[in-house]
């Protein structure tokens, strides 16, 4: 679609009306062609410029930092073995397959190591060494094989960024993302060794998430300046494995699916912290939610329907 005129006025009203019926939704921002069309709070949610816990949407942010680190020759590339940086953290007599695991495998959740998410999460984060614990997990698949969604994999990326650069992941996030995007990324949780939590519990405002989504919609550019290396968005949005839950594809820290008949790429955080990018419609959509939602609730489904059944038709009707 070559040109757009925002969203239809009736579509905007219907979208806000539908959003108001979602008891866990805290914010909704809809941008089209870089223009903010909807920016609303719901259910006494915090101001749109206040950083909130974005949960696993952090994984998409870590992926961006990895892409920049490769561009700056701090990392060699996605084929670089992780033990080239984390060798001292690996357990003695580790499985030889650990030497085959690459940075790309961590980005796409294909490390093959037992997950540290889900039922295993508590044991991992109460351990005294998150990096060592993640590296010591047994292999339950081959490196590069099936998707095993694990926050430990993204935390290993944070450790790799820190070890390879000599700077904290927080410092890198300030210089490489927060400053060029003109957003706030406050300090967040760290592991017992001081490594900033990779892929969970980062803090960004809904407005900041929208700027981050726009960065990807614009192929790594923001306000005419290149922030992500050429080709990193395409690499991140290339399907590499399939989610066992949703059946949708997964790239480098981004889920890949469809909404209302259009391709959508999205960052997904627990409880409904979402950044949806629909390139064909020039849409960036952010939703943040109450994180106290119970697992198994239909809130995520309701957010997907809000996108597919309200926002996408409003964008179609608003097209020139």
| Spans of at least 5 consecutive residues with low confidence | none
**Mean pLDDT metric:** 96
N- to C-terminal separation? 9 Å
Beta-strand fraction estimate: 15-25%
The H-and-E topology, N to C, reads as HEEEHHHHHHHEHEEHEEEEEEH
Number of strands: 12
Query: What is the number of helices?
Result: 11
Which structural class matches the secondary elements? alpha+beta
Q: Please give the radius of gyration in angstroms.
A: 19 Å
Describe the protein's architecture and organization.
With 320 residues, the protein is of the alpha+beta class. The model has no long low-confidence stretch (mean pLDDT 96). The longest helix has 19 residues, at 299-317. It contains 11 helices and 12 strands. The chain has helices spanning 9-20, 58-71, 83-86, 103-107, 121-125, 130-135, 151-165, 169-181, 206-217, 232-236, 299-317; strands spanning 25-32, 35-41, 52-53, 203-204, 221-222, 225-226, 241-242, 249-250, 255-259, 262-269, 273-278, 283-289. Strand 8 and strand 9 form a beta hairpin.
Summarize the structure.
It contains 11 helices and 12 strands. It has helices at 9-20, 58-71, 83-86, 103-107, 121-125, 130-135, 151-165, 169-181, 206-217, 232-236, 299-317, and strands at 25-32, 35-41, 52-53, 203-204, 221-222, 225-226, 241-242, 249-250, 255-259, 262-269, 273-278, 283-289.
List the helices and strands and how they pair.
Elements: H1 9-20, E1 25-32, E2 35-41, E3 52-53, H2 58-71, H3 83-86, H4 103-107, H5 121-125, H6 130-135, H7 151-165, H8 169-181, E4 203-204, H9 206-217, E5 221-222, E6 225-226, H10 232-236, E7 241-242, E8 249-250, E9 255-259, E10 262-269, E11 273-278, E12 283-289, H11 299-317
Antiparallel strand pairs: 1-2, 1-12, 3-4, 5-6, 7-8, 8-9, 9-10, 10-11, 11-12
Helix pairs in contact: 1-11, 2-7, 2-8
